[in-house]
Every structure is written in structure tokens, then in C-alpha cells.
From TrEMBL:
PANTHER family: HTH-TYPE TRANSCRIPTIONAL REGULATOR RUTR (PTHR30055), HTH-TYPE TRANSCRIPTIONAL REGULATOR UIDR (PTHR30055:SF223). The keyword DNA-binding applies. Signal peptide: none annotated. The lineage of its organism: Bacteria, Pseudomonadati, Pseudomonadota, Gammaproteobacteria, Pseudomonadales. GO terms for molecular function: DNA-binding transcription factor activity; transcription cis-regulatory region binding. This is HTH tetR-type domain-containing protein. PROSITE patterns: HTH_TETR_2. Residues 5-65 form the HTH tetR-type domain. InterPro entries: Homeodomain-like_sf (IPR009057), HTH-type_TetR-like_transc_reg (IPR050109), HTH_TetR (IPR001647), TetR (IPR025722). Residues 28-47 bind DNA. Keywords: DNA-binding. SUPFAM superfamilies: Homeodomain-like.
Length: 220
């Protein structure tokens, strides 16, 4: 028999659900407590305020992304690794989509979180450069160091702004789906098109087809 989920973890899970579905700005600690059927005092026993809950959610997201952005040990990179990176990042972006949708507000409201996010961004970009270099060394991409750096930065910009782009073009922050998020991953892959080695083109084209979502679905 599974052990019951502790109240602290229930608060974290419920907050993530509510932030994702309603937007962080529309959810208060009272809303979270009511959703769980606990008193506000019980919630404050575990978290002093909403910012503390957000900080814990960000720490979980940060750890999960960091675990993804690693190069495999003891072997060369493959196109299958590219599939793994894109789909794993898609899953995390979807699971923590409120962070991307409300990012500027969240960072403005919490200077400590803003400092942590800047470190996170630098770390992700450094890891992305290493990963792209691995694809170059494996003969999948044909790029020099400057192109790798530019591609890593452009990929980061797309990944971190895609949710806000969808919200502004569709008009309803709640009108998001994992399929629409998938088009954002496709956009990252599209950046690499001109650098793909001929020997890897067929496998990469298969991945293009898998990730493509028609533009009319993105901007109805």
C-alpha cells in the first residue's frame, strides 16, 4: 500500500496544477488551501508565502532540465539523442508551463528567484553548447564554434518564449496544448536545418515530420 502524500508535497502539486491551468497571478494561497481542503494556516506552516512555493517549483524544474542537458558518456551522439533532448524538454516545458508564461512577472516579484534564473540560464546555455559540439563531433551537424554558440542562444530564446508567443497569438492563456508546445520544439530543430550533415538528413527529416504542427493550428 502506497504511503499517503505528505501535505507539503500536496501543496506543491496542487499549486503547479492551479498555476498551469489558471495562471500564477490568478491563484492565491487561499485558493490553493481551498483546493486542497486545508486551512490557510496549515499551508503557511509549510510555505511562508506564494513566492516560496514558486521557488520550490522552480528548483524542481531546474533539476529536471539539468538532468536532461547532459551528453552521453562513453559513446558518440546519435540522431536518437536529438529526439530524446527535444521530447524530454517538451515534456518539462509542458509540465511547468506557468514558469514560461509568467516568467517576467515572477522574476520581477522575487529578486532571489531572478538571480537563480540568471544562473540557470547561463548553465543551460553552456550545456547546450557542449551538446551541439557533441553533434558536430559525431558528424550530424556541420558547424564552427561561433555557429554553435549562436544556435544555442537562438534555441534558448525560442524555448523560453514559446509559451508567451502562443498566449499572445491565441488570445487565451488557457488555450494551450502539448501539441502546440511541440511546434516550439520543431522551431528549434528548424534552426539546425542548414547545418545538418548529408549523412544524417534522412533521420533528421523523419524527426521533422514527427514534430511538425501546421501553422494554422498555432495561429488560428
Amino acid at each position: 500500500m502506497a504511503a499517503p502524500i505528505k501535505t507539503r508535497e500536496r501543496i506543491v502539486q496542487a499549486s503547479l496544477e492551479l498555476f498551469n491551468s489558471q495562471g500564477e497571478r490568478n491563484v492565491t494561497t487561499n485558493h490553493i488551501a481551498a483546493h486542497l481542503g486545508i486551512s490557510p494556516g496549515n499551508l503557511y506552516y509549510h510555505f511562508r508565502n506564494k513566492q516560496a512555493i514558486i521557488a520550490e517549483l522552480f528548483a524542481a524544474y531546474e533539476a529536471r532540465v539539468d538532468a536532461i542537458l547532459r551528453v552521453p558518456e562513453g559513446r558518440a551522439m546519435t540522431v536518437e539523442d536529438k529526439t530524446f533532448y527535444l521530447e524530454a524538454l517538451l515534456a518539462e516545458m509542458w509540465a511547468y508551463r506557468f514558469l514560461h508564461r509568467d516568467l517576467e512577472h515572477l522574476l520581477d516579484a522575487d529578486p532571489e528567484l531572478a538571480a537563480r534564473y540568471r544562473l540557470f540560464a547561463r548553465h543551460c546555455l553552456s550545456n547546450a553548447v557542449v551538446i551541439y559540439q557533441g553533434f558536430v563531433e559525431a558528424g550530424i551537424l556541420l558547424m564552427d564554434a561561433a555557429q554553435i554558440e549562436a544556435l544555442a542562444l537562438n534555441s534558448w530564446i525560442i524555448m523560453t518564449s514559446w509559451v508567451r508567443f502562443l498566449c499572445t497569438t491565441r488570445g487565451d492563456p488557457g488555450d494551450l496544448s502539448e501539441e502546440l508546445m511541440r511546434r516550439g520544439i520543431y522551431q528549434v530543430l528548424a534552426l539546425e536545418g542548414g547545418y545538418t550533415a548529408p549523412s544524417a538528413r534522412a533521420a533528421v527529416d523523419t524527426l521533422y515530420h514527427k514534430l511538425h504542427v501546421p501553422l494554422e493550428q498555432v495561429i488560428p
